[in-house]
Write the structure tokens for this entry.
Amino acid sequence: MLPSLVETYCIHLEAEGRTAKTITWHRTSLGKFSRWLADTNQREHPDQWTAHTMRAYLVALKHSTKPDGETLAATSVGTYARSLRAFCAWLCREEFLTTDPMTKVKQPTTPKLVKPVLSLDECRLVLKAAKSTRNARRDEALILFMLDTGARANEVCTLRAGDVNWSQRLAMVFGKGAKERYVPFSAATMVAMQRYAVKNRSDVSDRFFQGEEGRPLTTSGLLQMCQRIGANAGVAFSPHRLRHTFAISYLRSGASVFALQKTLGHTSLDMSLRYSALMTDDLISDHAKHSPVAGMLRSHNSPKSW
């Protein structure tokens, strides 16, 4: 019963235009829930699920471990809960369920961790290391493009040569949910990209950034490239860390969170506001300038106050 409902749900997601990655994730997530029901002798039919059933599953997830023995992260528990919530809502809309058991279940809280970003010196070390690799022109252009646009790894890898507008310095990327958006890049990044395009890029595929023998660059290949360059530079980084670095630098330069939201392709402004909340260096600097106590003591010790 449940496996067939999950497959029907996945067909629904595909018809809605969801990406293969999203569909695979829901199939995996709901398969995990199905196995838990079987292992704990729970009822398989959705009409027999209760809020207690769902809470018991979330508690089980919190105490479950990964193959390496580590406890499942709170963020992972949250994504499993969102998948199950979306599935139950769909079951109600399709009338497989009369009452949604997830409506009384709160979304698990996840810690809002400070995301590490690269300092200016670290960015310079990374770019210096990129210039000494076997595919130096591509790697330098890649690093600059990611630092300049905040594009996701998949967006960088699927960027097509025909979607780069040199005259306006814009690139059209395909984000989550197959949504298109334009990201601008600087003149310096354009120079590096054009140098790579003219001297190294082949016509084997239409992807702008290519792997070995002109084949499309994969996200795993991009991650491995970052790891190699990072090892040589003595700086640990990933495509996602470059995205965070862009976001913080963008806000520090005076850009608005609304512009950041559009550039990063966030569907919710809340995601962009998180970056603003994590600018601890700026908070320290501002506090040093505007501290009420420091100002009071400076005023007290000033000759004018005597």
Observations:
- The chain has a mean pLDDT of 86.
- Residues 20-39 form the longest helix (20 residues).
- The radius of gyration is 24 Å.
